[in-house]
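Standup notes
- HV: blocked on the assembly model, inputs below
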Amino acid sequence: MKRREVIKNLSIIPVSGVVLGSAIPFESTSAASAPPAPKRDIFKELGIRTFINAAGTYTALSGCIMHEETVETIRYSSQKFAAIDDCQDAVGKKIAELCQAEAAMVTAGCWSALVLGTAGVLTGMDQQKVAQLPHLENMKSEILVQKEHNHGYVHALTNTGAKIVVVETAEDVAKAVNEKTAMMWFLNYAGPNGKIQANEWVALGKKYGIPTMIDMAADSTPVENLSKFNKMGFDLVCVSGGKGLRGPQSAGILMGKKEHIAAARLNAPPRGGNIGRGMKVNKEEILGMYVALEKFINRDHQAQWKIWENRIAVMENAAKAFPGVTTSVTVPPVANITPTLSISWDTTKIKVDCNEFRNRLRKGEPSIEMMGSKDNLVITAWMLKDGEDKIVAKRIAEELKKASA
Ligand SMILES: *Cc1c(COP(=O)(O)O)cnc(C)c1O
């Protein structure tokens, strides 16, 4: 069997009755499925540190590792010419089908989806307005955002020239709506903190005839989220390609109503003379994003979850064995929905603070990255390759042992 066939067969082994553990090459990126050793080790050559990622999908840590199939798509498409509009048309149609949206396009990350989607709402198909952005004289210019959603990501919206109008309640929305109101924006991870929930936000948008947009960047798990907000009635849905979806780190998805996607594309490359010209995606990312999304949607999500849990257990057990160590495993209610391990300790028993501990793991061999504060370590397993949970567990135990002396 060819390597790929082997992987395909392994990944359809039913989960029940199989001893689950990180040895199953389910989302494998390790030995069994790894490409042959590179001819040129460019990281080494340039002296760039690489590491085991027990932190998660962080932009600064280069996000995620793409599946071999996605990388193959990128390699293959890099060797042929194709018109960008043809790629966006064909891939947009497929993504829309997969996510039950009317239309879709690939963007340069979720941030770019936010900018382009907003730009499209402001300009519609008016070429004059496209050229005018970010100067909104004689155009709609206000975006309603709940107070608890008014975080740094709104800068993507204000890039278009629009200004944010902060609201808290449905009454505030009623008062704020006027002829300048262009859009109502919802930040999914802030959802539980706001006074107005997603479905009510959509209903208010419909009531006042204002398009609604949701930023669900890191919320691609559970998989239902990818269609949920389209079905709920959001006019535009923005997703990161390079987080849980494991697509190209510099790609994302904008999906929603046909008219808005068409208008967003007027503000985006390959067209110039618009605010989106710098947010370029080429054929490799457009096709790579599609293949990554397809693979993500079709995977066995339950089996995947089990693998993450098992990896977390391996690391948790290694830490728990030390007196004075406390662990907990939780799943965030929104954003980065994956089992998340927190480790802390009594510093009279383990004589190091958690910042210094993470520093030791970073400087160790192999280098390991995780999150946390002075008082805890925060670890996820979804960006680990097979077997790396054991390496992380071993390094945690080694450093805990040293510090407990
Ligand atoms: C990561 C993130 C973004 C930006 O997404 P990119 O894909 O990195 O451009 C926007 N909004 C939220 C809530 C995010 O978490």
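- HV (later): unblocked. Residues 1-32 have pLDDT under 50 and may be disordered. Residues 9 and 257 are 38 Å apart (CA to CA).
- Next: hand off to the docking folks.
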